[in-house]
Amino acid sequence: MPDRDNVLDDIDLNFDTTVAKLLELIAIPSISSAPSGEAGIAQAAEWLKRELDDIGLSAKIVATMGRPVVLAQSTAKSDQARPKLLFYGHYDVQPVGDLAQWTHPPFGPRVIQEDGVHRFYGRGSSDSKSQLWTFIEALRAWRAVYREFPADIIVLLEGEEECGSPSLPDFIERFRSELACDVAFICDAEMWSPTQPAITTQLKGLVHERVTISTPNPDLHSGHYGAVAANPIRILSSILAGLHDENGQVTIDGFYDGVSDIPEKVREQWAELGEEHSLIGDVDLTGGVTEEGYSLLEAMWGRPTVDINGITGGNQGPGERSVLPGSATSRLSFRLVGGQEPETIRKRFRSHVEARLPQGCKAEFEGVGGSSAVMLSQDSRFLKVASRGLEEEWGIPAILRGTGGAIPLVEQFSRGLGAECVVIGFILPGDAIHAPDEHYDTERLRKGVRSWVRIFDEIRQDARG
Ligand SMILES: [Zn+2]
Fold first, then answer.
1. Following DSSP, what letter does each residue of 384-452 receive, concatenated?
2. 339-398 pLDDT, tens digit each
3. How many A from CA of 189 to the centre of ligand 1?
């Protein structure tokens, strides 16, 4: 009877092929946001469908309103009380940007040795082709050794994550019954450090707002009217400046309604991580304001914010124009935590602005999108199982982390499908994600693949009780 160690051996034995195939995938320019990326998207989808079929899944390419989804399934063994596992990854990549800033070709990857690390460069090498390749290779090796998968398997590979996943909600709705699962492993997240794995359990929600304040007048001569007429930039900046008090708290009435304090257990976990972590990176925090009563990590992962993203109005030309502008616009984003609803926050912000407008001036609003925060249970069965598997491979406990970012997909899966989500990944902030010379290394790939095998083994043991 084979066991888990045979699978781990198989991975190490076949690792050159694992790397070579991943490099083939990275060489395909599957840029989702540009029309020119269409051929690359189609080619990558075909390539992945073939690989998934080859490892014994039944794969298809599903057209959507946007980029296609590659969906694969194992033959269900409903006679056994096997859990159903869904794996999510995305095969599309960001545009390369300014080619002159790349010192390696974005779509011609090869392994090179640098400071003792076997590294490969290429767009999508870390975000997110290596990520999806970890679970596909783990499934391949498991089936090669055991002649069956560790559970009932669904693989969903998206082709437009880098464009904000516009077709995904509709796709989930259409394929609701095929996607039903006990747990969705979302493999699109970061490790804590090169040696310590992490599971992301808190994700913030996101709301975008645009506000334009105008006076009853067009642009006016500032010499004539500056002393007496309303100036929308002055009004707007005063409102924006008043959004926070001196302690860094948001002043919008009801902004914190429904927000519970960060649980003591979570605060303790985060406190152990320390403040001087690479999360801050090279960013100089001088002049920044951290909400009073919260550590840096608590503020970054566990507290809601409003951020002014842009402000325009009046003279933007090269020369001087002494004008009293007719209107001024600002764009803002809100990062939400559990208990805050996007539409309520939007309404409260709008009332906040309306209440501060001088007579005769008006405000127009434009809102885009909106997702709620997701707080994943720290006590769930699959999270515990995954933690054990990660710890076995890396020899150090996985950190349960938060993120200031949003993965709307997690909300769609947990709310739309009622599935438990476990967010795991093997990339690092230093991988130059979305930047020139994006890269990854073979050792993290190997340990990423092996991590899944250990997680599968834990799931199998857990299912046996
Ligand atoms: Zn990305």
1. HHHHHHHHHHHSSPPEEEEESS--HHHHIIIIII--EEEEE--B-GGG-TTSTT-EEEHHHHHHHHHHH
2. 999 999 999 999 999 999 999 999 999 997 788 898 888 888 999 999 999 999 999 999
3. 10
